[in-house]
Structure formats: structure tokens, C-alpha cells
Amino acid sequence: MKTNRGKSRCVACSPEDHSLFSHSPFSKGVGTALGTILLIAIFVVFFAVYLYMANNNIQVRTQLNLESLGLLKLKSTFDLFDTSLGVTWFITTVQGVFLAADESIGCGRLDDTPYALPTTPLPAGYWYRLEPSDVRSFTSSDLASITDKYNSNIINKNNPAVCYPLDHHIEAYIRRVITEPQRRFLYLKKLEPKNVSDVSINIRRQPNDPDAVDATVGLVVSPNDVKSTFVQYIDMTFGSGSINNAQLKHDSIVKTSLQRMVAAGRNVIEAVMKIAEGTDGVQSGLSYYASNNKGAYELQAQNEIDNAIRQQSTAAGIPLNFIGTNVQPELAAGSILPTATSTSCLVPVNTVSGASCLALHYTATVTYTEEPKYYYHNTAKNKFEKKSVELQYKVEDYLTAIDCLRWSTLDQTVPYYFNWQGTNDMACCGSYLFECDIDVNVNIPNLPPDQRIPVGGQMQTQPQTCPGPNCAQYTCFSNIKRALQCTLGGFV
Amino acid sequence: MKGLEIADAFWTLIFFIVIMVLVILGVFIWLQIHLPLFSTADPISYSIEFVHVANKPYLLTEVLAHTRLGDRQVLEQAIESIASSLENAQATDLPSDLEYYVKNYNLKEYYISISRPIASGQETLLSVESIETKCGNNVGTNEKLEGWCVFSECGVGRIEINQPKVGCISAYQKCCKDVTIEEYAANKRPNDYPAYSCGPQGEGVCSEGVRPAWASVYELFWGTYYAYECEQNRIDLGNPPECRDVNNGNTRACCVPKTEEKEVDTGLATRVVVPLLYKDFFGTLEVTAR
What we know:
heterodimer; A: alpha+beta; 32% helix; B: alpha+beta; 4-stranded antiparallel sheet; 14 strands; elongated
């Protein structure tokens, strides 16, 4: 088929060509346009499908993000609560250490062991106390056999009474402090979802006490720290997610030398017992005999006891500048009571047997401290104060400074003179203690009046009924075969 | 027709059809972006933004929970504060220490508080917030700075604070404080529009908002309202009917004060709450960030 440009008629066309194109010059263009429109329509359909799928994808992503946000909130709240609870237990451990030290590891508090005495064998804060009216029955060599915190219980009561805390007693007391209901450490507030951004948190409580957290408290005491472990179980729920029966374990370390302080205290107890056991009231230990006067003797006793405390404390690792001591000595007359194993100068004087000894009575208060590192909750003022862990304990003992009974065994025919205020104004004679009353204002405490000779007076030479008044004077006269006289220069 | 080729007319028709297709595609794409039937943002960037916003406060709180400021851990100071007070816990440096520490993270907005329940509600012991966009006179208190720095006019429902103690970074910014409708009515300028409440609980105010200059042309051409957006540092609740009906439709943006509570409620920010426990005491450490 040939076309003749510019003519409307096709040249050499077939009859079919004529019928198709002779009356419709745009039919080819209409078909093409229709095809194009169809293509566009198909394209739009595909695009609509794409839009639908994209929108659906966004909805799915949004849903996934919301669900993951819920899980994120649950998981993150769990982790953060775990951390927060760990800090709570750390603060609790710190307070437990402070209180255990402040309360002297419970020495003076009722013990909770099976055979504990119904009343405390010691006053609060005392680690050692001799009952002066009773004989000494417990020695330093008995310390090694102590297993309970006290050396006395309902089966076996000893004198002196000793509180001798070992490491496991320290751990037990800190645990007791933390778990005691009145301290409230375990009584953590129950959490309501509205206060925690709609997350429900439940800490398991004790079966017998629904307000107290059911936490297991583990403690280990070392020379330089106290380690605690708290274990408890929690449940947490948010939305459709939950964490059930999760065990939370929190370890805390409190840097403190509390264990060394307590060890130093034990050393000191042993040392003061040995001082007492080594003082026979004649010439050994802290016996009076060589002293210039009462004041010098008290000072000497104070220094020796103080030095012994410091020496034993530094041996346990307590720096000197963290040791505080306060030794208060005083003298008093007493009555010797000999036993098979020892002699004790009992105070007060037995009115029947009379004064036969001079007792050194002292109370030592020992304080150990360290560098302040932690904050202590002063509940009275509701303030947190940075201070050091401080352990304080008291020791009270009675030593036999002069044993007139022992002196008389050396040679009962002579008197033995000592310096009270002046020269030779105190004497042992015939197993009794006498004072030449030069200064009426400074007397030997507790000395019976008939054993105090006034200046210018002399001892009784007439036979006396014993026991009875002036028995001591006559006994002295009988032994030395002369009457001691009291002058301004002392006994002659 | 002489001079007129069938092929020329055909290709001209094709050309116009292609133009029409492009216009139709453009309309579809515009509908996809603007109509609520379809997504209003690119899906990839939307999901990333969402997760990023949700994670931030948890990550920040996790870091704070293990951070030591001063001589104690942050959590330790927080717990001791809720058991006593900031002063009694000797934690008075905590607010400034926290602010200095969090600044290192270059957060756009953050709010950290420690609070505890009391008989009458909640007591805030400590609050630290981003102040790059804040201004005002509440300095040295536990209260937040009351003003917002904006480059535009304050808008209906806000009044300008003149010469605040804490000013804005730029001299071109104004310090605007959200006030009640009554207070606005008493302090507005003569030419300012009166305030009308809006929003589901009436918590918003109808404001002029921000609109481009060609908005009127758009409205004229399309015969529909152009959506107004709220001024800077306000939460936008859209253009509800109650705002279109007042002030001749010139204050059709419903705007709510941009408080931390509102941002959390509307999903713009996420808040993390950490319980603080000690004996019978309870409090919370709350961190909001975006």
C-alpha cells in the first residue's frame, strides 16, 4: 500500500484498507490514546495497591513500636528498681555497721542464745566488769574456751563478767540490728502502680509479718570491710507483660576496720586480766609498795593500764591516733578473801573481818575510730551525718594494790609501812590495814574507823574480843609486840 | 486538513495525557502526605524517631543510677533526701551537680526531679531541667522557670515577661509565660485577641499560631482552611471547631502549655520513674527527656 501525501485517498490500497481508513482519519490515534489511558489506569491501580501496603506497613510498625515500648518500660523499670533497691540495702548495711559499733556489738544487751541469762551480765557498753564483792573465778586462760559472746550463762556464772565478741558475733549482731522490727530497715513501703507510672511492683513479704520484706541477709566481716548480701524476690507487671518471682541479689561492701577494732578490744580484755592476775598486792604488777604516795600510784596505774590498752590495740592494727582512752583510777579499802587458787580484795570492807587490803578500782573507756567515709542516719534529728564508725567499750576492774595478809606472811612480827599522803602514814600490821590520820580530809575510803589512828594516838594494847571493835589494833600489837603510834611523821 | 498531520495531533494528545498523568500522580502523593487516611510522614524516619525518643530517658536514668556526684552515688543522695530533706541529707549540691553532669549529653529537653508523697499531694525536693529554652524569674527555688523563649509573638494565652532574671539566649527572642484566661484578659495588649478555651478538657487556648504569608491565597484557591500551628514551645492540639468559630477564625490553633506532664500525656516525651525506698520512707526519681 502506498500513500500519496496530501491526498485523502489511499493509492493502491486493498478494499479492507479503504473500509477501515477511508471514513476515520483519527482511528489509529484513538486506539493508541485508549491504550495509553489503560496503561495509566493500570499504573494508578498499582500505585493504589502500593499506598495501601505502605500504610498498612506503617500501622504494623507503629503497633510493633508500641509493644516494644511496653516491653522496654517493663524491662528498664525492672533494671532501675534493681539498682535502686541495691542502694537501699547498701545504706541499710552502712547503718547496721554504725549501730553495731555504737552499741558495742550488743555487749550489755540481752543475748538471744539458748542459754542466755534472763538479765544482762554486764551494763550496756561494758566488755569486762569484776563484781568486787565476789571472788575472781574466771582467768585470762579461760578466754580461749569462750564460744558464746558472754562468759556467763544460766548454767555457768563467772566473775569477772566478760563480753568477748568474736567475728561471728559481729556478723550476728549486725544482722540482728538490720532485721529487728523496731529498727524498720526491712519495712519497705509497699508500692502502688499509680506512684510508679502504672508499673505494678511487689516485693515478697514475710509470711508472719506482711509488712516486712522477706529478705535473706548474709554478712561477712573481714579486717578491712563488712560485706552484705540481700536476697529477695519480686514480681513486676506492666500492661500485658510481667516478670514473676525474680530473684534479686544485692552485694554491698562497707569499708571499715570494725573487725580489727573488736579484735583489739579482745586483746585489751586479755591484757587487763593479766595485769590483775599479775598484781599480788605485795611487790608484783601494779602493787602499791614502791609508790611515793597515793597520787603517784594512781598516776602510775593509769599510765600502765593506758599503755597496755594502746599497745594491745595497735597490735591489732588500730592506728595510735584513732585510739582514745580514759582511765579513772581510785583506791579503797577492802577485805582479803583467800581461796584455793587466788586471793581477792573484796570491796566493800567486811565489817566482821575488817580491812585487810587496799584495792585499786579503775574504769577504762576505750574508743576506736577511723576515717569518716559514710553517712550515719541520726534518727533523733532525722539527719544524715558523715562520721566515722566508732567502737567504744568499758572495762572495770579491782586490783589488789596492797595485800596485808600476804605481807604478814613474810614476817608477821614487823609492820610494813607505805606512803598514803605523807611518809609511812599507811601500814600493814597483823594482816590488817591501818591509816595514820595526818590529813583528816584525805582518808583511805571505806577504812573502818578503828583502823584509822589519830595523830598522837596509838594502837590498843588491851585484849579485845575478835571479831569486834579494835580487834585489828590488838592483833597488830600482839604480832609486833608493841603499839604502833601515829605521829605527824607517820607511824612509828 | 491541509498542513495538519495526523501524527502531529496524535503526539500532541499523548503529550497532554502525560501531563495529566503527572498531575494525577502529584495529587495522589499530596493526598498521601496530608490526609489522615494515609501516613503523615515517611515511615522509616517516623519509626526511628519514635524509638529514639522512647529510649533516651531510660538510658539517661540508667547512667544516673550508676553515677557518683560529690562524695556519694546519685541514688544514695536521692534516697537519703527523701528520708529527710536535701539539707538534712547534706545533698544541697546535688541539683547543680546534676545540671552540670546532664549538660554533657546535649539533650534538647530534659526534666529530672526527686519527689515524695505528702498528705496534701506531692513534695518536690529537687528539680533540674533544660533551660536553653526557658526564662523567667523563679531562680533559686525548687520551682521551674516559668517562661519560654520564642522567636515569634507570645500568642493568645501567654504574656511576655519583661526583663526576666534569666533571659533568653537570643536578643530576638521573647520570654513568654503561660497564664490563665483571667490573667491573660487582665494583662493582654489592646490589639491582642481575647482568649477562649479549647481542647477535650478545656485545657487549651485558641491562639493565632504561626502561618505562612501565602496561607490566605491557599484558602482562597482551595476554599478550605489552612491548618494553623501553635507558637513555639506550646503543645499543638490541632484546629478544633471551637477555635474556628471565635475571633473570626483568626485564632484557630488550640494550644496547651508545654509542661512536662502534658508532653508525657501527648506522647511527645517519655518519663521514667524510679522508686526510692528506705525503711518507711518512699519517694521517686523521675526523668523526662526528649
